[in-house]
Amino acid sequence: QVQLVESGGGLVQPGGSLRLSCVVSGITISRFGMSWVRQAPGKGLEWVGDISSEGADTYYGDSVRGRITISRDNARSTLYLQMTNLQPDDTAVYYCAILAKYWGQGTRVTVSS
C-alpha cells in the first residue's frame, strides 16, 4: 500500500519561511519524479513544481518560482518543499504526489499577520 504523508504546514507571517516534508512508504521513490500541488481555499488545484527521480532536475510554477526549492532524499524516501518570502496568496493545502496517481492527505499552510 502506497502512502504519502505530508507535514510541516502551519501559520506563518508574510515574509516568513516553511519547509514541508512528504514521507513515502510502499513504493521506491527513486524510480519516480514527484510533484507538489496546492489548493487555495475555494480554488482548484495548482501545480507548484516537480523534481526528477534522482533530484537532478526541478521545475517550478510561475507563481512560486524564485521563492521555493524542491528537493528529495531518496534514502529517506522523503520529498521536501522549502518556501521563502511567503505571501497570503500562498495560503493553501499542499499535497505531494507521484505520477498524479498517489497523493498525500495534504498539509495546510496559512500565511497571515
How is this structure best described in words?
The structure is a single chain. The chain is mainly beta. It is built from no helices and eleven strands. It has strands at residues 3-7, 10-12, 18-25, 34-39, 45-51, 58-60, 68-73, 78-83, 92-98, 102-103, 107-111. The strands form two sheets. Strands 2, 4, 5, 6, 9, 10 and 11 form a seven-stranded mixed beta sheet that branches. A four-stranded antiparallel beta sheet has the order 1-3-8-7, with no helix packed on it. A hairpin with a 5-residue loop joins strand 4 (34-39) and strand 5 (45-51). The mean pLDDT is 97.
- The gross shape turns out to be globular
Tally of individual helices: 0
Biggest pleated sheet: 7 strands, mixed
Number of strands: 11
* Alpha carbon gap, first and last residue: 40 Å
Kindly state the percentage of residues in helix. under 10%
What amount of the residues lies in strands? Answer: over 45%
* Structural classification: mainly beta
Helix-strand sequence:
EEEEEEEEEEE
Radius of gyration: 13 Å
Overall mean pLDDT: 97
Question: In terms of topology, how is this protein built?
Answer:
Elements lengths: L2 E5 L2 E3 L5 E8 L8 E6 L5 E7 L6 E3 L7 E6 L4 E6 L8 E7 L3 E2 L3 E5 L2
Parallel strand pairs: 2-11
Antiparallel strand pairs: 1-3, 3-8, 4-5, 4-9, 5-6, 7-8, 9-10, 9-11
